[in-house]
Amino acid sequence: MGKIVNRAELAEIFGYSLPTVDTWIKEGLPTRKQGAKGVAWEIDTAEAHTWLIKKARATRRTRGNVFGDEKGEDSGEGRMSLDEAKQRHEIAKAKSAELSLARELGAVAPIDTIARVVSDEIANARARLLAVPTKFRPHAQLHASDPERAKKLVAEVDSLIHAALTEIKSFGSAETPQ
Predict the structure, then answer these.
(1) What CATH number is given to the structural domain containing 47?
(2) What is the pLDDT of residues 60-75, one digit of tens each?
(3) Same domain, 69 and 119
(4) What is the mean pLDDT of residues 84-96?
């Protein structure tokens, strides 16, 4: 599930105008709640994204070559002229340059780098948590009234840590998209 937003927020998130979002709604964009006077529309961004991808794929299949014929001429409805293709190319180059600059400034990083760092940090936190019972044992023995009570305290701490790690692991795997 994505974020629930209104029409204006959806337009801003996807970079389109409000009239375009209204057109999408008329064309079947899924909504959670229909707006009315004084009541905002509710649209799930993930559902909207999926719908837009399906719509784009369907449009591409029905229109064929979106760039027109081999000569670059606009020979049909929905086809792109040579000037439009050049403009798209320039926009793509500008976006690519912006992304390269963001990488140089450290504002973005490849997902595999981020995943590796997060994975290392999780493994480090897990190892530190698993070491807690061993570090706690001398304190338990010092403050407990007898050795059996100290063992029970350490075992309880160990059990709680393992239960928490199991819960975290199962939560993480349940959230992972298939």
Answers:
(1) 1.10.10.10
(2) 765 554 444 444 444 4
(3) no
(4) 92
28-57: per-residue pLDDT in tens? Answer: 999 998 888 888 899 999 999 999 988 888
CB contact at 8 A, 74 and 81: yes
- Per-residue pLDDT tens over the stretch 114-171: 889 988 998 999 999 999 999 999 999 998 889 999 999 999 999 999 999 988 877 6
15: left (phi over 0), alpha (psi -120 to 50) or beta: left
Please give the residue range of the domain that contains residue 149: 111-175
Contact 85, 67 (CB under 8 A): yes
Q: Are 133 and 154 in contact (CB under 8 A)?
A: yes
Q: Which of 91, 86, 107 is nearest to 15 (CA)?
A: 91
Q: What is the mean pLDDT of residues 89-108?
A: 90
Residue indicated by tokens 């976006």: 95
C-alpha distances out from residue 78 to 55, 66, 82, Å? 14, 7, 13
50 Cβ contact list (under 8 Å, min separation 6): none
Task: Please tell me the distance from the alpha carbon of residue 3 to that of residue 42, in angstroms, as a whole number.
Answer: 10
Contact assessment for residue 44 and residue 30, using Cβ atoms and an 8 Å cutoff = yes
Q: How many angstroms separate the CA atoms of 116 and 171, rounded?
A: 19
Q: 116 and 164 share a domain?
A: yes
